[in-house]
Amino acid sequence: MNPLELAELLAAPTQPPVREALRELAPRELDTLVIEALAAAEAAWRQVVVSRVKAFAAGQPGDGRPTVVAAYFTTTERRAADGMHLGWSPFVAALSDSEDVPDLRPTRTTATAVSVGEAALIEDVFADPELAAALNRLTVLDPPDHGDVLRVHLPTRTVTRISR
Predict the structure, then answer these.
(1) DSSP SS3 for 105
(2) Are 38 and 67 in contact (CB under 8 A)?
(3) pLDDT band at residue 105 under the 50/70/90 scheme
(4) For 51-96, what is each residue's pLDDT tens digit?
(5) Above 90 in pLDDT, residue 48?
(6) What's the average model confidence in pLDDT over 33-60?
(7) Global pTM?
(8) How far is the C-alpha of 92 from the C-alpha of 150, rounded, in Å?
(9) Which helix (H) or strand (E) holds 86?
């Protein structure tokens, strides 16, 4: 059983053996198990992000281009039934051939309102569904703040949230 399967079982323990096993645990043991399961789930989702970014970087044109060292994601606001939510954009904001973090501060541009349906369509057509799902899960596990950047460092396979 991989960490994602275990986390799913613990999040919704519908199988009788799992439910019975959880009922037998002391509260402190149960808390420890939940913390470990969440950490394992977060690590697994981070690895999905790394894998999808590696695939994206490998598919970029340009034979003379040096190896991509890092990719960066910025935050985006999404409208939902219960209001606006901040999450990671499912689109790579920048690829870097060095260790230097590019300047990803917002520039002065004219904002154009996009309807919820149209925004979802753009994500469905242009975004990598696995990458979008992993970024959404990471948003739930560790919500970003405005101005944060998510750095995917490919040589070390690490995903780091950089706060400004």
Answers:
(1) coil
(2) no
(3) low
(4) 999 999 888 876 555 688 999 999 988 776 677 788 999 999 889 8
(5) yes
(6) 87
(7) 0.71
(8) 10
(9) strand 83-88
What is the rounded CA–CA span in Å between residue 149 and residue 30?
Answer: 33
* 103 Cβ contact partners less than 8 Å away, ≥ 6 residues apart: none
Residue 96's contacts (CB-CB under 8 Å, 6 or more residues apart) are 68, 69, 70, 71, 72, 102
3-state helix, strand, coil in the chain (%, to 5): 45, 20, 35
Q: Cα separations (Å) of 109 from 86, 105, 154? A: 19, 12, 31
Provide the residue count of the chain. Answer: 164
CA gap 75, 9 in Å, rounded: 30
Dist. CA 139–CA 17, nearest whole Å: 31
Structure tokens at 79: 């409208």
Which one is predicted more confidently, 9 or 154?
154
The gap from C-alpha 47 to its chain's centroid, in whole angstroms, comes to: 9
Per-residue model confidence as pLDDT tens digits over 117-144? 666 666 666 788 899 999 989 998 889 9
90 within 8 A of 132, measured Cβ to Cβ? yes
Quote the CA–CA distance of 42 and 108 in Å, as a whole number. Answer: 34
Matching residue, tokens 């939940």: 34
CA dist., res. 88 & res. 144, Å (int): 7
